[in-house]
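Journal club side-thread
Mid-discussion, someone asked how the predicted structure for our own chain would compare to the paper's figures. Pasting it here so we can look after the session.
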Amino acid sequence: MATADPFEVRMRFSSQLQHLNASTTSAQKAAQYALKYKDMDEDLHSCILEQLEKTSMNTRANIMYFVEHLLEMASKDRQNDYVRMMQRDILRVVDAVCPEDGSGVANVKVVRRVLQGLQTKSILLEQTVTEIEACLKDRDTSADAGFSSPANGDDIARPHNGSGNGTSTANHLDKRQIEQRIEEDRERHKRMRENMWAVPGSIEEEAKKIWEETSEYGEDDRIFGEEEWAEFQREMEAQKCPHIRAREAAEAAAAAAAANGSSSH
């Protein structure tokens, strides 16, 4: 079986992290990619840390939400290496998403919401979350002066004129980034409201919802689909019974013989 090129896998994963947005689909797609290449989990984990420390604050917030999706899916699939490595490096992740210098004050609520979600899912210990919360208090002194994602669906991120760290945050984000952040937070807020009031519906309604949330088909999807199909075919071939293999080989030989016979005439 052909082995994927580690450099290509890393580059494609980095690209997915850099282009994450407020949609659940983009986070789940990146998480599925990481789980597919679980044999490169250490390299992909380091890739997450690298992107957290080099991208914009908006992208770091999106990666933080992605981390929650990844760990939840990894936990369900019993891919505990991703969970273990993130538990080990969670403080480094938090420091990258909302640094002590106040540049990430807009992300404090994002971090809190994700940490609470991971604690609820028993991925992080309560003691760990409590200790991180104590650190976040010092970084949240001017959270209301900046803008931040809704932690409980109570507010939508919007810039304010303020002093202290709020001014520092404004200096780190240009107008385009602020508008992008407001739009992404509005989308998350809307989805949280919908989930809060969601009631079980028909299969058709669920299918329509999934269709509306699915991103457009792109080059990564095509390559991913071809790889999945090739892997499926290899697995099916490996699971065939010996007598089926022998029969197919005989049929192939007969067909080749018939083709040779017709060509000789």
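Post-session note: Residues 57 and 104 are 6 Å apart (CA to CA).
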